[in-house]
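Hi,

I'm pasting everything inline rather than attaching a file, because the server keeps stripping attachments. The sequence lines come first, and each chain or strand is labelled.
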Amino acid sequence: MKKLKVIAAMSGGVDSAVAAARAVDAGYEVVGVHLALSSNPQKYRSGARGCCTIEDSHDARRAADVIGIPFYIWDMAEEFHKGVVENFLSEYQSGRTPNPCLRCNEKIKFEAVLDRAKALGFDGVVTGHYAITKESPTGKTLHRAADIDKDQSYVLAVLRTDQIEGAIFPLGDTVKTDTRKEAKERGLFVANKPDSHDICFVPSGDNAGWLRERLGSETGDIVDQSGKKLGEHKGAYTYTIGQRRGLALTVPDPTGEPRYVLKIEPKSNTVVVGSHDALAVSTISATPPTWCGVIPELNKTLRGFAQVRAHGAALACHYKFDGTNLIANLDEPVFGLATGQALVIYDNDRVVGSGTICETI
Amino acid sequence: MSIYFDHAATTPISDLSLTALTNQAKKLGNASSLHSAGRSVRKDLEAAREEIAKAIDCAPSEVIFTATGTEANNLAIKGLYWKAVKEGKNLVITSTFEHHAVMDPILWLAEHEGAKVIEIDVDKNGMVDLDKLKQVVIDNKGKIAFISIMHSNNEVGTLQDIAQIVKVAGDIPVHSDCVQSFGKVELSFKELGLTAATISAHKIGGPLGVAALILKRGLDIEPILHGGGQERDIRSGTFNAPSILAFAAAATESASQFKDRSVVVRKLKQSLIEVVEKNVSDAWVNGDQTNSLPGIVSITFPRSDSEGLLLLLDSEGIACSTGSACSAGVQRPSHVLLAMGLSEDETTSTLRFSLSHSNTIAEIEKLGAVIASVVERSRAASGKK
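And the predicted assembly:
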């Protein structure tokens, strides 16, 4: 039988390196590809951040050499800027808080890269994500990883069934500490490389500063729920729902309770603050829905779990699809939920579907 | 069995060169030392210098050994500039399609040392516009520090009329990057009348890590590396005798063989072009094939993507090149092909095949057997219309 050919997306980190090595062991013909996501990669920035530095591409190349697979760099800077960075900026401009990792999976790794790989005659794309896919009569389904602390099914839930079909996640059954151990045993230099945490295209880690540089810092009012002015802000989009610190309010709360960002209104350039109780959200609407498997029956209320942020808790809920929105009614309210994040619905550990949060009540 | 069509990047070390390298590596002595061990190595080294001088037709004292061709280019360009600028000449004339090892030091001089730069255009065949050069020389009398134009282009293989360029230059110093030409075509430093020329060992069957700047006798330029002053006080660093001897062995071998080899290689290149054109009807060759190196050919496969082409050919065991790669490995449109009038999309649909006498017709036939399907798949992946 002819070997299946796959592209291993190699960030230069430990996970994707071990994933590529395991794909070789599993009998795939593997070609390693590092994605150049910035047209001007910063030279030798700390390797702890992101995956698009020259140092990272060297690490990826070295790992591919040790594994013994061909290695290439694919320039995806234009696609990344269009699909991820521009979306990130426009979402903030609209008062929402986007998750760029999710967009990168949707538009870059499992669209631009997968499409290119298929056109070149490859059968799929291997990544170091911690998630599990399972065969089912209706096609591949997406599930949480064995290592629940590392589970990345949330940032993959945006993938369509055809994208999941082309995805291979060799690390789904592994805990991170074992991945590192295995990397060391395989002689991979990246075994002890720190995990990346920040947004890869914000090298300084200063998200607010990065946004201010690009979107300006027009001052506006910070108001309470009745519209009364309590202070001034320097660029509404640098605030996050649920944020408490750094508000610099000049009018104290009469009850002495701390106040939190409740809402960002980009049109009036206003930030609304209020009590912690006012942050409570019980009903979440998300759109457009992406289904990882069978589409739920229209307007039928089902039991499941909702997750609303990466590495967030699984919140017990009823959910339904009303034809436009995916709507979750939580058993217990959640506090400080930003629109723009993804709502992912799980049936136990299986991803049912997801959407971008557009409204919270 | 892998097929190697990337000899312009580097080519296998020859048996004679390898023997010279290993024999000399076993020999003790620093060529600068005064004792007998040092003198013995010095004797070998100077004999090697004479061999290389003979191969490029210059005086032995005009050979300055460096570690790489890039170093030799930097030394010539910065050295000639710093010398001329003392005489109030700060204008540098070059072409639009030089190798980065020439282009980048010139840009550096412009950014940091106040150099003014005029780039002479090349035509669609890759030939420098001599009329334009003449005019620039007339218009800027007394201001030109030096002219640097490559003897042959590394991406498309076109050979410039350097003798004519030197004639046009008159008393203006001319440097030429001869890295791709040396050992492949007739090349006489003396007859061309050059002030400086760059040559490198690993393109002609010598080892990596040794090259030379041929610099006119009596011309003292500022060094870049300061130290023991081993090479005419222009280049410092312990003599790399094993590599220099191996360089000399390769240079002598090439000098005696290049005429026969070039006939063989040019025939192979013609076969490669025919095979590609037969299988991919809309592919085209870039640059003049009459005035060209025997072994280099640049072919555009419209609507394809050279990264994809390279990956697919590599998986078929065929090595070639997309042009000069940048440090991060990310493909950028080739400035050489842009200068010759190709669009950005066309430059990133282009491959360079560079052949040597060790290639065979059977290898070219293997390329012919896969090229059509490789191009088709690359086109599907490129998204170009």
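Confidence is low (pLDDT under 50) at residues 43-51 of chain A.

If the labels don't parse on your end, tell me and I'll reformat.
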